[in-house]
Design brief:
The chain is mainly alpha-helical. The chain has one domain. Helix content is about 80%, strand content about 0%. Helix 2 crosses helix 4. The chain is globular. The two termini are about 25 Å apart.
Length: about 100
């Protein structure tokens, strides 16, 4: 899913934007292995946090359509962060290193 910068700014906070932008080329290919692992760990933590928020909202809504729409932003945020994780994982594969 292609997302423009304006949507990213709307969905992500400042720290998340820095993490996601760090998971883009050419920065990604220039990172040291330890920094790449730290980036992957931080991205996974943020993705899990957004996913938990969606799950919690779904449980609280108990079938309400409006509540599902309210959680759309968290779903999109989790998707953006997941895309960044995929780029990091591809970089690990390209380098032939083990992911953490």
């Amino acid at each position: 899913m292609a997302v423009n910068r304006r949507s990213e700014e709307r969905l992500l906070d400042t720290d998340e934007r820095k993490l996601v932008s760090g998971a883009r080329y050419p920065e990604l290919s220039e990172m040291k292995a330890d920094d790449l692992r730290k980036l992957a760990r931080a991205l996974r933590e943020r993705r899990d946090k957004a996913t938990r928020s969606v799950s919690k909202g779904n449980r609280a809504a108990k079938g309400s359509d409006k509540a599902g729409q309210a959680e759309r932003g968290n779903r999109e945020k989790a998707g953006l962060i997941q895309s960044a994780i995929a780029r990091v994982n591809k970089e690990f594969s390209r380098r032939g290193e083990a992911r953490e």
